[in-house]
Amino acid sequence: MSIKLIAFAVGLVIANSALAQPAQLEVNNPWARATPGKAENGAAYATIQSPTADRLVSASSPVAKKAELHTMSMQGMVMKMRPIDGLDIPAGQPVALKPGGEHIMLMGLNEPLHEGQSFPLTLDFEKAGPRTVTVTVEKAGAKGPDSAAAHH
User: Fold this and answer.
1) In this structure, are residues 129 and 123 in contact, taking their beta carbons and an 8 Å threshold?
2) Tens digits of residue pLDDT in 97-109
3) By CB atoms within 10 Å of each CB, which of 58, 80, 140, 142 scores lowest?
C-alpha cells in the first residue's frame, strides 16, 4: 500500500469523526416536570454537548425569580441538594442534567408549571455564551422528555 493511500484513508477516518461531533454547543431535549399548585420551586433538565470543553456557569428564566445550578446526591439515607457554581462540559461528551443529579433549580415560580406548556430558559456558558432554549413541561413525576409518549 502506498503512503499516499494510507494518508488518504487516515484523512477520511479523521474527517468522519469530525463530522460526528456537533459543530457547536448543543442543548437537547430541555424539559421540566409539572409542579403542584402551591409549589414555589421547580427544576429543568437537558442534555448538553459541545465539540470543545466549556462550562455552564448560570441560568435564568422569566418563569422564576431565580434559577440556580444544583446537584443532588445521597449521603447515607439522606438526599442532599446543594447549589454549584458551574458545571464542566467535556469536549465531545454529552452531559445530562436529570432528576437525581445535576439540574437547574427554578426558585420562586411566578405560577405553577403545567403539563403541555413551554417556557424559555437561558443557559450561560463560559465560551459559548448565552443559549436560550424552549423547555417543555412534562407530567408531574416524568422521568424524561416525552416519557408519556414512549408508552403509547
Assistant:
1) no
2) 999 899 999 999 9
3) 80
Taking CA atoms, 37 is separated from 30, 40, 42, 145, in Å, by 22, 9, 11, 21
Question: What single-letter amino acid sits at 27?
Answer: V
Dihedral in degrees, nearest 10, Cα atoms 123, 113, 150, 20: -10
> What whole-number distance in Å separates Cα of residue 148 and Cα of residue 142?
8
Domains and their CATH numbers in the chain: 24-141 (2.60.40.1890)
What end-to-end distance do the CA atoms of the chain give, in Å? 54
Q: How far apart are CA 104 and CA 44, in angstroms?
A: 5
Cell numbers at residue 22, please?
456537533
Name the strand (E) or helix (H) holding 41. strand 41-49
**Which of 130, 117, 112 has its CA nearest to residue 59?**
130
Share of the chain above pLDDT 70, in %: 81
d(CA 42, CA 44): 7
